Amino acid sequence: MSFYSESIRNKLKEILHSGDGFVVRGIGKSFAVSYVAGMVDIHQLNMHVLECLTDKGPVESIENVREWIAIGECEVMPSLHEATEKLLSGYAVVSLAGTPHILVVNVMKIPTRTPSVPTIESTIYGPAISFTESMELNIALLRSYISSENLIQESIQLATETNTKTNIFYMMGTETNPFIDTIRSRMKTCRFKGLIGSPMLLQLLQDNQYSLFPEMSLSERPDVAAQALLEGKIVIFVEGNAQVIIGPNSFFDFFYSIEDRYSLWGVGIFNRTLRSMAFFISIYLTPLYVAALTFHYQMIPLTLIVPLIESRTTIPFPPLLETLILEITIELLREAGARLPTKVGQTMSIVGAIVVGQAAVAAGFTSNTLIMLIALAALGTFTTPNYRMGATLRIIRFPMLIVAGTLGLPGIAFLSALIIVHLLRMTSYGKPYLFPIYPPNKDGFINNMLLTASSLFRFRTDLTKNNRASFRTAARRWFSSNEKDE
What we know:
- The protein is 49% helix and 12% strand.
- It is α+β, with helices and mostly antiparallel strands.
- The chain is elongated.
- The termini are far apart.
- The chain folds into four domains: 104 residues, no CATH class; 115 residues, no CATH class; 172 residues, no CATH class; 44 residues, no CATH class.
- Helix 12 packs antiparallel against helix 13.
- The longest helix is centred in the middle third of the chain and has 30 residues.
- A five-stranded antiparallel beta sheet has the order 1-2-4-5-3, with helices on both faces.
- This is GerA spore germination protein.
């Protein structure tokens, strides 16, 4: 190692507070090449950098060195200290004796996995490929779906100690995107120590950060991201994450699946109707059971009263406590299955549910009727395509059970009214969260919720158009038309 390369090593030790992890190779007496072990492509480094610097005569400036290296992404930086961030990102840093300027060369090769079949958003139809932890590969997958000059990409590096890189994608059409300025400003003003996962950034970008209901979604599928872009939404890539952020979304967007567009329009409508029914089943089925047994026996048909009474003769708990015990048991099995390895977790969830259910009935702690209702409610949450919304429904069910067991039907109605008011007040980047139900929008209802044969290829809706006053206008027209009819 030459005297110059040794001095570069000492400078890097001072900057990085350590001498481990990086390599400094001296080439002659004038050059020193530094890189982080394991983060560079050794083949490119040897062929395009080290060989180009070997046996070279006197060099006047670092710009001359740049002309020798046959790699497109090269950048001259004013000092070694400013090039440290590139060094830690996987770039090779070329130093020349006699000048403070530094040449950084992109020979990055971060360990990653190849694209595989989606494991979270599985579908029967459509592409069987998912994003990975490599941002470059993810961007290539997205551009393979939309190769248009209207697809705009913006890079933003968040002000964190992790120096996380993000990329924003949106479609530039005849009108400006109404959300890009807001999202860009929120991302640039984010101040936190480090960003490890895209769900952490998602929570900071929402209008209502403390609401249980999500406003932006995560997806591992390139076709879902492409669909969102065509609808006028924004897609955010976070470095090192296999899921992209998509937004803004309305409440009903979380119950749609990309497979609805791949199926026949009638099948798509049926599936969406089925999910709507599952939504109400997951929230209200067990609370209505508890309220009926506790306060409203007159609601139960006569043919069902006798079997219910016989099934509960040996149960020592009131309906509310019995239901809460089973709901908590289901959540424990779900959490245990998620934390265990895949095959073991699936077996644990199935076998655990069967064993616990049979043992609870045999011991007289619960009835077969309630176990069936709990299973239907759990299936209702599983039909929700979006995991974040499914988790919200599971949480809401617990306070709904408590008010049902303490106040009966009036408690269920009161809590439901509070939830509806909260949803009506929510916005997603200035747009109503309950679009197209509120304000009423006939075209949005047909194109988004019904998904008719003629609307399969309609993408952009009033939710994503740059018309902030259109919702107020639509609401006034709807209410005025009803007044005229009266």
